Amino acid sequence: MFKFLLPMAGLILFSFASYSPVAVASETKYIHLTPAFVVNYGNTGRMKYLRTEVALRVSGIEAASAVTQHRPYIRNNLVFLLTAQDSDIVNSSSGRETLRKVALDEVRALMTELEGMPYVDDLFFENFVVQN
Questions:
Q1: Res 50 pLDDT > 50
Q2: Residue 6 within a domain
Q3: Number of domains in the chain
Q4: What is the domain-level CATH number for residue 113?
Q5: Is there a contact between 51 and 36 (Cβ–Cβ < 8 Å)?
Q6: Which end of the chain lies in a sparser environment, N or C, as judged by fewer CB atoms within 10 Å?
Q7: Which H or E run contains 55?
Q8: Tens of pLDDT along 59-101?
Q9: Residue 117 φ/ψ, nearest 5 degrees
Q10: Separation CA 10–CA 8 (nearest Å)
Q11: Distance CA 91, CA 89 (A)
Q12: 68-107 burial, b if ≥16 CB within 10 A, otherwise e?
C-alpha cells in the first residue's frame, strides 16, 4: 500500500509545485485596436493616405483590462501620431520600424500617465498600406 501512496503523494506535490500564479499572471495577450487606422498624412501637396492595423502585446489579465479600458484614448493619440508623419518615414522599412518604436513609446507613456504602469510590452503593425 505504501508503494502506491508514495508515488501518488509525490505526483500531487509536484503538481502543486509546478502551479505558479506568476505564470498565469504573465500570460501574453494581444489587444487589437479595431477598426483599422485610416488617416491622411503629410501636410503639403496632394492628399496621402495610410491604413494600418495595430495590435498591442500585454502580459496578463490586469494589463489587458487596463489597456482595453483606455482604448479610445490610445487610438486618439495614435491617430495624431500617424497623421504627423512624412512620406520618407512611411515609405521605408527603417522609417516604419522607427514609427513603430515611437508609437510604442507613446502608448507606454500614456498608460504610465493614466495607470501608473506602462502595461504594454510591444506594438505591432499587422499591415501597413500607403497611398502617395
A1: yes
A2: no
A3: 1
A4: 3.30.479.30
A5: yes
A6: N
A7: strand 48-59
A8: 999 999 999 999 999 999 999 999 999 999 999 999 999 999 9
A9: -140, 150
A10: 5
A11: 6
A12: eebeeebeeebeebbeebebebbeeeeebeebbeebbebb
Q: How confident is the model at residue 129 (pLDDT cuts 50, 70, 90)?
A: very high
* Structural domain span for residue 45: 25-131
Q: Is the pLDDT of residue 35 over 60?
A: yes
Residue 10, pLDDT > 70, answer no
pLDDT above 50 (res 55) = yes
- Distance between CA atoms of 31 and 53, rounded to whole angstroms? 11
User: Quick one: DSSP state of residue 41?
Assistant: E
**pTM (global) more than 0.70:** yes
